[in-house]
Amino acid sequence: MDVNAAVAAAAAIAGVLTGVIAMLAFRWSERDQKRPTRTSLHTDAVLPPGVDTVLSVLRSSAVVLDEADAVVKASSAAYALGLVRGGKLAVEPMLNMARDTRRDGEIRQVELDLPRRGTGRGEALAVSARVAPLGSRLVLLLVEDLTEARRIEAVRRDFVANVSHELKTPVGALSLLSEAVMDASDDPEAVERFAGRMQIEATRLTNLVQELIDLSRVQNDDPLEDAEPVRVDELVAEAIDRCRHQAGTKQITMAAGGTADLSLWGNRGQLAAALGNLVENAVNYSPARTRVGIAARRVTAPGGEHIEIAVTDQGIGISDKDKERIFERFYRVDPARSRATGGTGLGLAIVKHVAASHGGEVTVWSSEGQGSTFTLRLPEASAARERVTDHHMPGLDEEDESGQPDGTTTVTSPYEPLPAPEVLP
Question: What spans are recorded as compositionally biased (Basic and acidic residues) (predicted)?
Answer without folding.
Answer: 383-395
